[in-house]
Amino acid sequence: MEDIAVKALLFDVFGTTVDWRSSVEQELRDLGAKYGIEADWAKFAQQWRTGYMKETARIAAGGDGPNNVDLMHRQVAPHWSEEERDELNLVWHRLRAWPDTVAGLQSLKKKYIIGTLSNGNVRLLIDMAKYADLPWDVIFSGELFQSYKPDPKVYLEAIRYLSLEPHEVAMVAAHAFDLRAAAQLGMRTFYVHRDQEESDPDPGVIKSKKYGGEFDVVTGSFLELAAIISDRED
């Protein structure tokens, strides 16, 4: 069995660690009811997320723009009042973890350094960790490195701060593009399936190296991930 020993795991957050979709949709419905605003909130949430993904990718590729996603999120809904947009923006600070997340992280934390490597800004990630009880050892944010994933600088700077080599660090994500960027730098890649998260046009290619794919591990939860990598290192 292939040895995949690592010393640290860095986690994508939106979609991988927390269920942004159901969390945001519920918060939007509540805000809509509070301010008497009717909308297709599921569609609004997806458009908001899509806009964020496009903007962070553009900036990661060298474009101009804010390195703080709170500022980026506030550009949504320009016709809302300032008070309404303040509340709207904080929706992203209160995202619920997937059911397996906290127990899985607690299990992994016993043996590995665990931290975020997210495009979310630092304050957002701190608030989310407190809200969802996420037991991170460290929070790395693209904001700290003045860019966003998949800019190689974001991954390499996080690794540098851990005083490790790329092969000693695994990226954990539910998005193939994130793991592909990490793999190009020599990081290990742990893919976790999450409902409605993968944007690859051919999801059938998402396989582990054991089955002819490109990722070191492909699994369905953080708890399964903990069991798999523990078994391979024994």
Layout of helices and strands, plus pairs?
Blueprint: E1 8-11, H1 20-35, H2 41-60, H3 69-73, H4 82-90, H5 101-109, E2 113-118, H6 122-132, E3 138-141, H7 152-161, E4 169-173, H8 176-183, E5 188-192, E6 217-219, H9 222-233
Parallel strand pairs: 1-2, 1-4, 2-3, 4-5, 5-6
Helix pairs in contact: 1-2, 5-9
Keywords:
234 residues, alpha/beta, 9 helices, 43% helix
Protein architecture, described:
Helices cover 43% and strands 12% of the residues. It contains nine helices and six strands; from the N terminus they run E-H-H-H-H-H-E-H-E-H-E-H-E-E-H. The chain has a six-stranded parallel beta sheet, sandwiched between helices. Helix 8 (176-183) links the parallel strand 4 (169-173) and strand 5 (188-192). Helix 1 (20-35) packs across helix 2 (41-60) and helix 5 (101-109) packs parallel to helix 9 (222-233). The longest helix is centred in the N-terminal third of the chain and has 20 residues, at 41-60. 39% of the residues are buried.
